[in-house]
Structure formats: C-alpha cells, structure tokens
Specification:
The protein contains 13 helices and no strands. By secondary structure, the chain is mostly helical. Helix 1 runs antiparallel to helix 11, helix 6 (111-120) crosses helix 8 (135-152) and helix 10 (176-188) crosses helix 13. The longest helix is centred in the N-terminal third of the chain and has 25 residues, at 3-27.
Amino acid sequence: MNKRIANQFQDLIENYVADVEHNCAKHLQKDRVLIPLIASTVQGVSVAIPDQVTKILDAKIKPEVLLEMLFQLAPVIGTLKVEQALEQVQTVFNQRKIVLNSPQIESDPNYGAKVQEKLYGTEIKTLLHDLPDEAGSFIPHALTEHFFNDFYKRQELDVRDRERYELLALITMNVDFQIKAHARGSLKAGNSESELIWSTIQLLPYIGFPFVINSVQVIHQAADQMKGKE
C-alpha cells in the first residue's frame, strides 16, 4: 500500500481502535489480547499475526496457552488457516527462543464427550438424524470424537475458555445457528454475559459493527432465556 494512504488510514482508525481497547480493558482479563489473533486466524489474514503474538507474549500469557487457543480453532475453521497462523507464530517463538512444555492430557478418554453432553446434549445428532448413507451418524460421531474428545482433554485451556474462544471464532465467521448454540454453551460453561459481550466488542475493529451488533443481541437473548429457566 502507498505509504501516504496507509498513514491516512492509520490516522483515521487510531482513535476508534484505542477507544475499543480502552473500554474492553476495563471489563476483560489480560487474555483479551488473544482476541485479535482469533480474528486474524479465522479470516486467514496473517500479516498482523507476528505483532499480535508479540503483544500476547508481552502480556505474560504463556505460549502454550496461545498455541492451545489456535489448536482449538482447527475443528471450527478448518486446519489450513490454523496451519498458516502457526507458521507466523513459530517465527516469533524462534526469535524469542521459546521452549514449550508438553501438554497435560486428561486421563478420561471420554472427557470431551461428557462436556459435550452437559453443554449441548444431543442437539446435533437430533438435527442431522435423517441424512442419507450414514452421514447423519458420522457427523455427530466425528464432532464428539474429534471436536470434543481430541481437544477438550488437553488441559492447557479449561472448558470455559475453549467455549469463549470458539464463540468468538463463530462470530467472526457470522454463522448464525452456531452462534446461538455456542452462546448458550459458553454461558453454561461459566462465562458471564458481560464477558462474552465485551469479548465480542473487542472484535469490533476486526469484524465491524454489523457482526458485533447482531452477535451481542444473540448473547443477550441467550442469557435472558437461561435466566428465565432458573
């Protein structure tokens, strides 16, 4: 991009980004700095990733947590975009000579399936039951075994954080059905309505007002519905 144009654009958005950052910092924990990396990875835009990774590490977030968050995106957005992001992450890790610890694994091989049942029941199995040629049984099977059992038993992230990061990825993708389901799942996992809404607002410079406004309404409605059932 022409330097003059780039400077004009940066001058234009500087106050906008700073306002979002300032207000989100009042309502979220330090792991909010992971949220821009989620947006870049989901959108397949790698140019900003090295700076985002640097900010994450400077915030004293463990590199293992950063990696686990990216790994968790794979069953949500696909492996190719995650691999692309990991290449950029590895460059920064190499520059900083980071040595990674091995992940701790939950001993119960069905741990993820139990989490899925608690948060989502048989929603997907019921939804897809009449698909032909065993597709209706394979997709729920793969979801349980490879979304939940493979990933959730890795202990670097707890269920609450996994659900929140997944929701933010789905919001970035703007997939309405899954946003509604995972808004409920994220609340059930222990995230507060305020934390989910402010985490979504943290996405504002990266995904824009329409996606954010739609999604915070979905989260608010899910929270109200859950309160009504108490």
